[in-house]
Amino acid sequence: xxxxxxxxxxxxxxxxxxxxxxxxxxxxxxxxxxxxxxxxxxxxxxxxxxxxxxxxxxxxxxxxxxxxxxxxxxxxxxxxxxxxxxxxxxxxxxxxxxxxxxxxxxxxxxxxxxxxxxxxxxxxxxxxxxxxxxxxxxxxxxxxxxxxxxxxxxxxxxxxxxxxxxxxxxxxxxxxxxxxxxxxxxxxxxxxxxxxxxxxxxxxxxxxxxxxxxxxxxxxxxxxxxxxxxxxxxxxxxxxxxxxxxxxxxxx
Length: 252
What we know:
The chain contains six helices and 13 strands. It has helices spanning 11-22, 67-76, 90-100, 115-127, 150-162, 225-234; strands at residues 2-6, 27-32, 39-40, 43-46, 57-60, 80-83, 107-109, 133-140, 182-184, 187-193, 199-207, 210-218, 242-244. It is elongated and about 60 Å long.
């Protein structure tokens, strides 16, 4: 399979490109990033989207403000798209559904490529119906372009789907805006941005006389690469034109 990487100059994009190039069953043929120069695995990073024309699969690690424009181009090329760019809330997923429609090609949105993070989200979804209140604290490096993270949004949406009403005894008054976080489907999400961090998320559930915390930590971006390879290898046979997450690929 011929694979291209969009956003190849970024941390995740460059690592994904090198990982794909090292896979015996995949063929890295093109790199695109309008914000950087250089080369990976002997390929020059192009600033022209047309460089990805001819790819069977495009792995998308661009910025949230340009991702939809990019995806429209990859769709016109007839490519499959694996999306690692964050910011795909319910509204943007609706826009993507309209954009991608029936193809050509399949589209897979992956809020988090870490296998551990996917399991963390699944465990949170399992626990949610048994507790009246859930809150999420996510922490990432200080160069992350958006907040909250795609993983936090996806986790909150999963919790809200199975436990739609958060039952706090008092709705506290915020003395400073944002003190209580943001509501995502009535689940409060708190985003922290600090140098030295990679990716961290804790989902906290509170009940009468007890509290459950489910935490996932990422110390190195290499932890995302098995998920990237799984998504790339699986997307041509994907049953739905548009899918979200690695859960079905892991049998969860």
